Amino acid sequence: MTYPNPLRVVTRNLTPNIVISSCSFKRFDKVNFGARMALFNYDNSVIVWSAIPYGEEVDKAIQKLTGGSAFDVTHLIIPDKEHTMAAKSFKEKYPAMKIIAMESVDLGESCPIDYTITSKYANKLIDASVLEEIGIKESAILKNFQFVYLPHHANKELVTYDFNSKILFEADLLFNLGNGEKLEQFSPETGYPEDYNPYLGWSCSSRYLHPDSTVGRFLLNKICNTAQSAEGLKTIYNWDFKLIVMCHGNVIEHDAKTKFKTLFSSVL
């Protein structure tokens, strides 16, 4: 699994206090998946979701988010057990940063997990009261986020909901590749030609990984273990989300709940 070097990133605002940074990424060093990080600014506390490697491009994203105002990177949310590669680079830069992750994630002694979400909270709404039970006291998390943990998903997905913006953030629960749109993660801004086709060669099968594909729905439901994740998926669907930000593929900015229901129609 590789990020490009040098890393080229396209960063844009979703809201005045949320930016997303998108870049290319290859699964198994061969398959074009793309990657995406989100940054939130709540009262000058910067919360990182799904980190990409820390460096100049991340600094630019933080500056875009904060406008040059004073800030502190206070939390990193790891969205599933596969999205951990860049966590240490943030911890080295911001050693006081707290990490929220699910059980089974071990980043070593130099990068401890501060708040662990366990199967005790499987498929349930993780709101402020539950977060406090887990040990989280910081208002930047308690006042702005809710979560659902899907431990039966192959990658143990921790889905994040920013209820102020009504945006859902997920890593591998839903992909949005091959939907006929040009991919933001493989664009001229990230170092690719305007006419680049990300679905050639080893990447040919990734074109099916989106909610409107029969093949994609089969694969994503299998990875999710939908029957055992049903209550969690219903809890997620009950959120009033308008957008879905995923790690792999274009952000779903229209009909997000419809797309989610299409993908998991067997339990919704």
From TrEMBL:
InterPro entries: DUF4336 (IPR025638), RibonucZ/Hydroxyglut_hydro (IPR036866). It comes from the Eukaryota. Gene3D superfamilies: Ribonuclease Z/Hydroxyacylglutathione hydrolase-like. This is Metallo-beta-lactamase domain-containing protein. It comes from Hyphopichia burtonii NRRL Y-1933. The lineage of its organism: Eukaryota, Fungi, Dikarya, Ascomycota, Saccharomycotina.
